[in-house]
Amino acid sequence: MVDDKRATPSPAAPSAGATSNAWHGRVVSRGSGPASAANIANIITVVRILLAPLFVALLLADDSAQGRLRLAAAVLFVVAIVTDSLDGMLARRQNLITDLGKILDPIADKVLVGAALVTLSVLGELPWWVTVVIMVREVGITVFRFVVLRSRVIPASAGGKVKTVLQAVAISLYLFPLSAVFGPWILVADAILMGAALIVTVATGVDYLVKAFRFNRPSA
Questions:
Q1: CB hemisphere CA count around 47 (13 angstroms)
Q2: Rounded Cα distance, 152 and 217, in Å
Q3: Which residues pair with 26 in a beta bridge?
Q4: Residue 35: beta bridge partners?
Q5: For residues 157 and 198, what is the distance between their CA atoms, to the nearest angstrom?
Q6: How far is residue 189's CA from residue 175's CA, in Å, rounded to a whole number?
Q7: Cα 153 to the chain's mean position, in Å?
């Protein structure tokens, strides 16, 4: 979920031969040669995407009963969040950054967060307007980055990292059946934290667009 954690300037459009060789190269080891599109970092990213349907199924099956299925869904979400940091770290440390990874990583982030928010709204535990606002920002910025800034990179801000952490913690608190342990006051704390995540999400989205506008504006 960390914005631009694999970001590097996008290369020129690959030739047909380069595309066919994308699956050949390093999978785990560090080196200066080309990395395979099927490297360990990308595999972890794909696994994160595949975990989303299972997470949704567990959460819906629990149906707000706050039982074992709910706990399993919450744990699965946290595991997926951890892999979000792991794949980016491996890609950078092992020099396994690929064009496929730069496409899949933000998609995986949005799939996971979107799945959690939409399912919580379906269950009536999170207002739909909160889900819509967050997802419009997340999907909108991702599409803008791919379509408008394909050959340029706007560095991730500190606010973007705060947004990521707030979203992850807020969603996790909504998922774990904590009210049975701490009482109903924890629901108020959850709502406040989600509100903070919402505000920072919108603010960082606006900040990103302003930076992009300034970056693309021709110098006088």
A1: 17
A2: 13
A3: 35
A4: 26
A5: 17
A6: 13
A7: 17
Tell whether 2 is covered by a domain: no
**pLDDT score for 216:** 67
Residue 219's pLDDT is what? Answer: 54
CATH number, domain at 177? 1.20.120.1760
The secondary element (H helix, E strand) that includes residue 103 is: helix 99-122
* Whether the predicted pLDDT of 9 surpasses 50: no
Q: What are the b/e assignments for 6-27, b being 16+ CB within 10 Å?
A: bbeeeeeeeeeeeeeebeebbb
Average pLDDT over residues 20-46: 80
Q: Supply the DSSP symbol for 29.
A: S
pLDDT score for 181: 81
Q: Domain for residue 43, yes or no? A: yes
Cβ pair 22, 98 in contact under 8 A: yes
N-terminal to C-terminal alpha carbon distance within the chain: 36
33 in a structural domain: yes
Structure confidence by residue, pLDDT tens digits, 183-207: 888 889 999 999 999 999 999 999 8
Rounded Cα–Cα distance for residues 189 and 25 (Å): 48
CA distance 44 to 85: 10
Q: What pLDDT, on the 0 to 100 scale, is given for residue 214?
A: 78
User: Bigger pLDDT: 128 or 27?
Assistant: 128
